[in-house]
C-alpha cells in the first residue's frame, strides 16, 4: 500500500506543470468604437479591417509568446494600426476644422507607472513612439504642439510631411461636416482611434492609445486619448486600459483610471475575503468585465459612447463598449486569438481558462 502511494505521489510530481503554473500573457487591441452600420460593411471592407487588426494582434502576441515585454508588444501592435490608413491614428487621422491632422497619443508602464503623452503633433509618423520617448527620455509626462515637435527633432525623429497623414476619406468627412453643418459624431460613425493593452509573462502590464481626435476639432481641442487616467492607464496591481469614444465624456469619468482603481479595490477586498474563503470563483472571475461595464454605463449615463479594452494580472482580456461596434482583437497564452467588429462576435470567453 505504502509503495502504491509513493508511486502515485511520484506520478503526480512528474506530471507536466499544470497550465495554471505556466506563465500567462494576454493582449487586447482596439481600432476605435462607434455606430457601425452592418449594411455599410461590405465583405471587402470587413476583410481589410480584419487583416490589419490581425496583423497588429500577431505582432504583439509574438513578442509576448516569446517572453518579451508588454511595453514592446503594445508598441508593435499600435505602430501597425498607426501606419494603416484605415484607422484614425497616424496615417488616416481625421482632419481638424482648419484642414490639418493633429495627433494625440499616450503610453503607460504598469510596472512603475511611468507615463508619456503628446498632443496636437503634426509631423511625427508614429505618435506612440514620441509619447514613449517623453516617458523614457524626459522629466515630463505630457508635451504639446510645437514644443513636442521640437522635442521630437531633438530626439532624432524625422519630420514627416503633413501630406503623409491626409487621406481622401477623412478629407471628405470634414467637407461633409462643414457643408451639412454636422457634428463630428455624425461623420465619424466609426471613430478609429487605436489602442493596445498587454500582460507579459513577467506579470508586467502596459497600455497605449493613439488618435487623430475628432473630425472638425478646433481651438486646440484635445480628447481623452493622450490623457493619462482618461484614455490610458496601467498599474501592475490592477489592470491596463485603453479607451476610445467620445473623449469629453471619458475625461469627465476618468475612465481608464476609474476602472483600474475599482479593480484594485476589488483585489484588496478579495485578499481579505479569500482568506476566509468567502468569494465564489464566478464573482472574482467576472469582476473585470463587470467593472468595465459599470464604468461604461456611467459614461452612457452622462450621454457619452465608446468602449474600452483591458487586461488583468490573471490574464483576462476584456472588451466593453456601448456602441454598435468596436474594431477589436485579443490573444492570450490560453489559446484565444480573435478579431471582431460588431457586438457579440466573440467566440472565446474573456475569462482565462488556464
Ligand atoms: N477618444 C478620441 C477623442 O475623443 C476619439 C476616439 O476614440 O474615437 O479624441
Question: Into which percentage range does the β-strand content fall?
Answer: 15-25%
Sheet of most strands: 8 strands, mixed
In terms of per-residue confidence, which ranges show pLDDT below 50 for 5 or more consecutive residues?
A: 10-18
Q: So what's the overall shape?
A: globular
Which ions and ligands are bound to the chains? aspartic acid
Rg measurement, Å: 21 Å
CATH architecture: 4-Layer Sandwich
Question: What is the CATH third-level topology name?
Answer: Glutamine Phosphoribosylpyrophosphate, subunit 1, domain 1
Terminal residue distance? 34 Å
Number of helices: 10
Can you tell me about this structure?
The protein is an alpha+beta fold and 354 residues long. It has a single domain, classed as Glutamine Phosphoribosylpyrophosphate, subunit 1, domain 1 (4-Layer Sandwich). 39% of the residues lie in helices and 21% in strands. The protein has 10 helices and 12 strands. The strands form 2 sheets. It has an 8-stranded mixed β-sheet. Helix 2 runs antiparallel to helix 3 and helix 9 (255-275) packs antiparallel against helix 10. It is globular, with a radius of gyration of 21 Å. Mean pLDDT is 90; it is low at 10-18. Aspartic acid (ASP) binds at residues 32, 191, 193, 211, 213-214, 223-225, 244-245, 247. The site of aspartic acid has 12 residues, from strand 8.
Amino acid at each position: 500500500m505504502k509503495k502504491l502511494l509513493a508511486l502515485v505521489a511520484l506520478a503526480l510530481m512528474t506530471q507536466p506543470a499544470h497550465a495554471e503554473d505556466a506563465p500567462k500573457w494576454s493582449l487586447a487591441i482596439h481600432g476605435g468604437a462607434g455606430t457601425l452600420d452592418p449594411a455599410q460593411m461590405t465583405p471587402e471592407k470587413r476583410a481589410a479591417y480584419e487583416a490589419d487588426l490581425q496583423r497588429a494582434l500577431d505582432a504583439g502576441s509574438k513578442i509576448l509568446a516569446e517572453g518579451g515585454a508588454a511595453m514592446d508588444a503594445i508598441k508593435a501592435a499600435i505602430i501597425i494600426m498607426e501606419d494603416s490608413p484605415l484607422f484614425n491614428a497616424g496615417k488616416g487621422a481625421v482632419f481638424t476644422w482648419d484642414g490639418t491632422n493633429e495627433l494625440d497619443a499616450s503610453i503607460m508602464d504598469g510596472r512603475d507607472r511611468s507615463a508619456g503623452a503628446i498632443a496636437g503633433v503634426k509631423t511625427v509618423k508614429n505618435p506612440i513612439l514620441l509619447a514613449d520617448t517623453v516617458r523614457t527620455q524626459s522629466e515630463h509626462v505630457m508635451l504639446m504642439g510645437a514644443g513636442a515637435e521640437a522635442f521630437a527633432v531633438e530626439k532624432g525623429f524625422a519630420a514627416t510631411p503633413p501630406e503623409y497623414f491626409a487621406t481622401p476619406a477623412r478629407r471628405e468627412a470634414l467637407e461633409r461636416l462643414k457643408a451639412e453643418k454636422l457634428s463630428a459624431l455624425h461623420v465619424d460613425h466609426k471613430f478609429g482611434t487605436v489602442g493596445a493593452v498587454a500582460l507579459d509573462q513577467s506579470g508586467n502590464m502596459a497600455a497605449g492609445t493613439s488618435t487623430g481626435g475628432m473630425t472638425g476639432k478646433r481651438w486646440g481641442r484635445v480628447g481623452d486619448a493622450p490623457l493619462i487616467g482618461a484614455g490610458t492607464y496601467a498599474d501592475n496591481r490592477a489592470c491596463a486600459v485603453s479607451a476610445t469614444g467620445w473623449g469629453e465624456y471619458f475625461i469627465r469619468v476618468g475612465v481608464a483610471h476609474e476602472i483600474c482603481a475599482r479593480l484594485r479595490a476589488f483585489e484588496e477586498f478579495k485578499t481579505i475575503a479569500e482568506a476566509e474563503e468567502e468569494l465564489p470563483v464566478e464573482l472574482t472571475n467576472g469582476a473585470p468585465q463587470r467593472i468595465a461595464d459599470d464604468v461604461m454605463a456611467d459614461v452612457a449615463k452622462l450621454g457619452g459612447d465608446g468602449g474600452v479594452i483591458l487586461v488583468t494580472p490573471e490574464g483576462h482580456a476584456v472588451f466593453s463598449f456601448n456602441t454598435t461596434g468596436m474594431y477589436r482583437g485579443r490573444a492570450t497564452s490560453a489559446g484565444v486569438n480573435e478579431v471582431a467588429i460588431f457586438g457579440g462576435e466573440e467566440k472565446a470567453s474573456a475569462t482565462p481558462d488556464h
